[in-house]
Design goal:
- The complex is a heterotrimer.
- Chain B is an alpha/beta fold.
- In chain B, 40% of the residues lie in helices and 26% in strands.
- Chain B has helices at residues 41-48, 71-76, 94-102, 108-121, 123-127, 138-151, 168-185, 196-202, 220-225, 227-234, and strands at 3-12, 15-25, 30-34, 56-61, 64-65, 79-82, 156-160, 188-193, 205-210, 213-219.
- In chain C, helix 3 crosses helix 8 (192-215).
- Chain C has helices at 2-32, 38-57, 60-88, 99-119, 146-168, 170-180, 182-187, 192-215, 226-239, 244-264, 270-284, and strands at 134-137, 140-145.
- In chain C, a hairpin with a 2-residue loop joins strand 1 (134-137) and strand 2 (140-145).
- Chain C is 72% helix and 3% strand.
- Classes of the chains: A mainly alpha, B alpha/beta, C mainly alpha.
Chain lengths: 321, 236, 298
Amino acid sequence: MRKKLALFILLGWVLLLIGDRVDELRVYQGAQIAMYTIALASIVLLTGYSGQVSLGNGAMMAVGGYSAALTLNNLGSPVWFAFVMAVVVSALFGAFLGAAAARLSGPYLAGTTLALAVGLPEIANQFAFLGGVPGILFDVGFPPARFGEEFTQYKWFFWIASFIALLALFITSNVLQSRYGRTWRAIRSHSLAAELSGVNSGRMKILAFTISSALAGLAGAVMAMTISLVAPGAYTLSLSFALVTGAVLAGVSSLPGVVFGALILVAIPEVADVLATRWGGDENLNNYLPGLIVSVLLILSVIFTPNGPGEKLKSRHHKKA
Amino acid sequence: MSLNVSNLTVHHGAICAINQVSIAVPTGKLAAIIGANGAGKTTLLRTLSGLKHPTNGSIMWKGEKIAGIKPEALVRRGISHVSEGKSVIPELTVRENLELGAIWRRNAKESKESIDQVVSIFPRLGERIQQRADTLSGGERQMLSIGRAIMAKPQLLLLDEPSLGLAPLVVEQIFQTIRDLTTAMNLTVLLVEQNAMGALKIADLGIVLNLGKVVAINHAQALIDDPAVRAAYLGY
Amino acid sequence: MQKLLETFLIGLSTGSIYALMSLALVLVWRSTRVVNFAQAGQAMLSTYIGFEISTRTEIFWLGLLFAIAAGALLGAGVDYFFMRVLFKHAVSGPAAVVAPVIATLGLLGLIRSIVGLIWGGEFKTIKSPASTDGFTFGETTIPFSALNLLIIVTVFVILIILAIIFQRTNLGLSLRASAYAPEIAQLAGIRTARTRTIGWAIAGGVGGVAGMLVTASNFLSPYSLDLLLVFGFIAAVIGGLESMVGSVVGALILGIALTFILNYVGTSLVFIGGFAVLIVVLLVKPDGIMARGRARRA
């Protein structure tokens, strides 16, 4: 435990140093990567550990984002409180969803959460206090003056996002390694045996949904910070989709893998951009190429390395031994 | 010898279910395959009908190698397998279950004639021809399974424990019908059974399997008279 | 009273389109034990092809025909090239639960991206084969139009055709047998793999019709069929994924219920309404309203 704490502190220090040495764009992308790691962690917990396939994490991110924005704007609260509210509200939503979905599995669960993912943005469109299509502003404010003039807005985002990500990952890692994590894995692979050993799988599943949604909501608030906005267009089905892809690519039950997955998710639009400009800069290409790459990656990885590249490496290692 | 099995070896993952088994069954004869649970009897039938691929060895039917060929193709070569337990489709009617067996022949007239033939062998099926198969009793379902197998006009009939779960009187009927069919249609039959005595009594040939190996192979009557077989499988 | 009737009729029209989608989903589920989320993508691509044909020839029905053909080809293709590969790489480990679902989702995204790359994202329209004006009876005009009527009739005809195929032909018997008990069907000489592909082709063709019909009074875009997929899925779940009749009944109920919410409560709650219906059904009768008490297994 103490070793892990030290590791995380070290990581934080390294990120600090990196943040000082790279340019604006990279710092901004760093914030995005941090955001995705939190979001992917939510999927690792829910799908990788407790075995529940949910396509609704994008919708949960929206819940978090909107909660944070509403808290910040309407209650005039400090920024950190807005993030806390994001976690709390999404956790509540997650608990409710988990309770409703506890008896579902496989395609039923996937389809229900798909319905959520498609429909939640619609709800935001309809209600005025949610800002409709243009959305609501989410402004965390300028970096504190004592950091000096050189300290840019994006760097501030990066610091906040990384701190939150490190904190969230630390806590999640502990949860996953605790008996909760073990129980989830037991439910995932042998639910009948687990039940017979006295595990209340229904409650554990709801717990998984709750924590996973809390993480997703947190990621949603961080996303809102980086784009200074919450709007339905930011939380589309494609987002839920990208999250699932990132998780599968990284190893759906591997927490360390989320960093890798996050890197890929941020890299894809950039790669797609480069390719699109090289191939003629058609607007269509720009819009749909990232999706194409994501989909192809997803299909290939699901067919060939469904448990993440880590699995293949592990099995080769075993063969040698 | 229309059916010739040579050094057949079949694995379930790492476990060897059938270990270098060689059997030859003459045309038109009924071979009873008996043995304890787990002896490999069902696996043998499943391999013969194409549901399972052997690891080694060969199966010759009517002079051709058939190991590894898909079940649908083997049906067209005259092999019909009535698998253990639920071999009828409960949601379909009796008629539909029967028709299923003859679809591949693509001949509506022949199919109708075959149904009439099956009904004459199993009148009870005729009475229930429009009913869903899940309304049938155990014995009737067994008749339906055999009936469906006959619809394919098979030359080799593989029967897996037809007597399972049936009342003794019904069992006698079924066994007698199997014997009559074998003779009337010149079928080659492999009859896997836990009911060793009943099977041997109607059989020409007897094969004893234990732990995947052939322990004894002889005329059925010889096996009935064999004291070792009597002690192990016939209960006296 | 009049509003009640209007709502009911429009609900019937909407519900019949959902019925096609849910039928396609159930068909594939029964034969392959997979919920094919890519169905929306197949339907979408088929509809774009139908759009091209119907725009060039100005004949809606020709476009519909091509959409059906494209849908059937796509369905067969997805089963043959994609599903078989997927199942060959048998999956174990933590991803086993997830893999087939994610694979069909990946396929949906792939088809959507390809469609977007070829046709772009702007909304397209298909000229409706029938008037979209409400019928007028003397002084009053009801929102139920000739198109609505056409939709109901078309779906009805398709359902009858499918029922005949399934109940009265050898192909239908093979399809049912392969779905209920694939091993028994194999032992009876049915080419189950080929039969399954035909089932997927039928599902694909049906999806193509759904796409064309829903677009005739709406816009077409790479995202326009998502809602159809969701409602089709909800309808299938209401009816119980195992029953084709159930999925049709479920879809009609859903269509009518949603239209009621739309007319009597307001548009903002339509989606929540649908979602609520889904949750309620799953909580109260997880096997669907038509199920005979079979376990809801994934």
